[in-house]
Amino acid sequence: LCQRRKLTVDFNEIGWGEWIISPKTFEAQYCAGRCPFPLTKELNPTNHATIQSIVHAIGGHPEVPAPCCVPDVLSSLTLLYFDDNRNVVLKNYPSMTAESCACR
């Protein structure tokens, strides 16, 4: 079922280690899993996702996929990094960590 999974991002692994000072890693997390019919309240579906789930289950429109498991709450991450002029910058970046998941 749709749920949050562990994803630790290492900035060195993605080629950003030379300009990001801190943190060196962070917990980004990700969402994965099925959104099966019928969608339960635990999957936190929107009304649209509920209707899409019904249409998909009935099968009258084969082009309509099941709803997707996606982040529904994201949190920010503060980074300390070097800018293009090698100045040290402290900046908060929104929507960096998946805090919870839902079927949408």
Describe the structure.
This is Decapentaplegic-like protein. The chain has 104 residues and is mainly beta. It has one domain (3-103): Cystine-knot cytokines (Cystine Knot Cytokines, subunit B, Ribbon), CATH 2.10.90.10. It is 12% helix and 43% strand. The chain contains one helix and seven strands, in the order βββββαββ. The chain has one helix at 47-58; strands spanning 3-5, 8-10, 20-22, 25-27, 30-32, 69-82, 88-103. Strands 3-6-7 form a three-stranded antiparallel β-sheet, with no helix packed on it. A two-stranded antiparallel sheet has the order 1-5. A hairpin with a 5-residue loop joins β6 (69-82) and β7. The longest helix has 12 residues, at 47-58. The radius of gyration is 18 Å and the shape is elongated.
Task: Summarize this entry quickly.
The protein is mainly β and 104 residues long. The chain contains one helix and seven strands, in the order βββββαββ.
- What summary fits the major beta sheet? 3 strands, antiparallel
- How many structural domains? 1
Gross morphology: elongated
Give the neighbour order of strands across the main sheet.
3-6-7
How large a portion of the residues is in β-strands, by DSSP E?
35-45%
Structural class computed from helices and strand pairing: mainly beta
CATH topology: Cystine Knot Cytokines, subunit B
What's the level 1 CATH class? Mainly Beta
